[in-house]
């Protein structure tokens, strides 16, 4: 299938961080109220697609752990900044012999950006525990990354969402 067929078939919509998504599952079971005052589903899951016309999932941080599962298309590069400032790059894709991974766990509190560098699209699923809520997500600003990680701002600049995006 082509990217537009997948977007239509999976009912994907533009995501605030870039790319396209559709929530496929939300647990009926809930956590106890969090420190921001409301419970979360125990688990949520989405489809997430980056395309050649929306190739970056901009740098952001989530409170919850997220497991990413590769499905199809071209490989996706994940840029992860751990709380202490260590930068890690992991490629999700189907070429295991080349070191690509089929799944990736990004712990809550890490900053991450996802990038499609070749091809028409890359499709993954994400499982979030406790479940995703926009209140638990922070989109990076240049000022914040400069303050937190001044030595790596230059290499991450293109992965930070500009105000007009």
TrEMBL record:
Residues 5-139 form the DUF985 domain. InterPro entries: Cupin_DUF985, RmlC-like_jellyroll, RmlC_Cupin_sf, YML079W-like. It comes from the Bacteria. This is Cupin.
